[in-house]
Amino acid sequence: MATEELPTKLESDMTSAPAPVPEKVETPVDPPVVPEKKADDPKPLAVVETPAEKKGPKSSLDRDVALSEIDKEKKLSFIKAWEETEKSKAENKAQKELSAITAWENSKKADIEAKLKQIEEKYDKKKAEYGEKMKNKVGLVHKQAEEKRAMVEAKKGEDKLKAEELAAKYRATGTVPKKLLGCFGG
Questions:
Q1: Is the pLDDT of residue 24 over 60?
Q2: How far apart are CA 11 and CA 25, in angstroms?
Q3: Which residue from 4, 13, 1 is spatially nearest to 74, judged by alpha carbons?
Q4: How high does pLDDT run on average in the chain?
């Protein structure tokens, strides 16, 4: 039943194209005339024999075989075209997804690098603040040390002055200090 509908469909497709020129009946085996494809006609054209070329039951069988071959080639052509478009779609989709992943990766890297830079700036600022505090502490310790040195020097001066005063007193009185008697006495 499908083979009966196919010839009418092909003949209806051929109505838009120029009809093939009928050949003389005298020549027994001539190849059918195939019209050239037009560049703007997307449908493939099929070879259709004219009724004058029919020679009986054998030519009808050959026609059915030829039509089934044409139908098979047409299907294979459509399948190949479909396969190519599907492959192209898959390739484009994968490329789009890969570029989206690359963009996402670059965005995340930029965010992380920005955060790292902020943290580094924060720590550099804290480091500078702590460095300043430590320098201030060092300066404070140095100041305290100078004060203690000054106190020791002052006490040393006082002790020397006191020793000189006591030595002058002992010289004036002619007595010997009691602390030294224990060391030198015997």
A1: no
A2: 21
A3: 13
A4: 79
